[in-house]
Amino acid sequence: MLKEEFTLHSQYGFHLRPAQVMVEKMSAFTSKVQVKKADGTEADAKSLLGLMSLGLNDGQTVEITIQGDDEEAAMKEMEKLFQSNFGE
Fold this sequence. Notes:
Blueprint: E1 2-7, H1 16-26, E2 32-36, E3 42-44, H2 48-53, E4 61-67, H3 71-83
Antiparallel strand pairs: 1-4, 2-3, 2-4
Helix pairs in contact: 1-3
């Protein structure tokens, strides 16, 4: 199991488009991928509705937990997503 914290850097917060990008990228992996806020609220990174329900804003830090056979590759992809601000 891998865990890493990331900070969201988007003036518009985590809206539909970046959430959809995360779902598309993470759905390619068999590992379980969870996104957790500081308040303990968490969602499946492969669920658009779940991600949107988190209500993430600019500057918020989330903990990403990935567990499974391809967890290392999935975490590398997650790092790329946050570094590129989900392509925005």
